[in-house]
Amino acid sequence: DAGVTQSPTHLIKTRGQQVTLRCSPKSGHDTVSWYQQALGQGPQFIFQYYEEEERQRGNFPDRFSGHQFPNYSSELNVNALLLGDSALYLCASSLVRQGNTGELFFGEGSRLTVL
Amino acid sequence: EDQVTQSPEALRLQEGESSSLNCSYTVSGLRGLFWYRQDPGKGPEFLFTLYSAGEEKEKERLKATLTKKESFLHITAPKPEDSATYLCAYQYQGAQKLVFGQGTRLTINP
Lengths: 115, 110
Known about the structure:
Strand content of chain B: over 45%
Number of strands of chain A: 11
Order of helices and strands of chain B: EEEEEEEEEEE
Largest interface: A-B, 25 and 22 residues
Number of strands of chain B: 11
Oligomer: heterodimer
Radius of gyration of chain B: 13 Å
Largest sheet of chain B: 6 strands, mixed
Radius of gyration of chain A: 13 Å
Distance between the termini of chain B: 41 Å
Distance between the termini of chain A: 37 Å
């Protein structure tokens, strides 16, 4: 049973560039959430997608956008990168029908470095 | 303002030395309190969900408890493989997001 897979695992960008991160949820899951984790901090919620729509959004600027595809996979896009966007980006999946949307399955993350 | 604070930031124990990690929260309308484990370079791994004060959950050497203001993660006779960062998070009523604390970095020395 495949868990949550994310790509790429590491990437380096320069300020002002754009980046796209990808996520495939755990088999059978229908909901994808994205979190940003700075070094030494807990993950911070960016947004959640269900049925191809954004259900809730955290306190992140519009430079952060996302998409969910019919096969439940998801992308996170960040435009006009800033140095402060350097972080581990985590994708988490869950199953709405389970009811407990706090029980998340996380991928290993995409480590973004902005120079 | 809703918030969650974990203490201590770091804890170093000898193998077999039991201890507790603390998660203090101030949340209006708590839906659930969650514990996760995170190994270096990995994503968090779900451990427990607690819904109401007085509830307890156990898994191997770990036991999580919940009061109206705090949650504790008790570690009994830990082993080196229990070394990790332990994160607590809350979810409030009507919300999808989890709000995480900053974590406690636990090291168990053999």
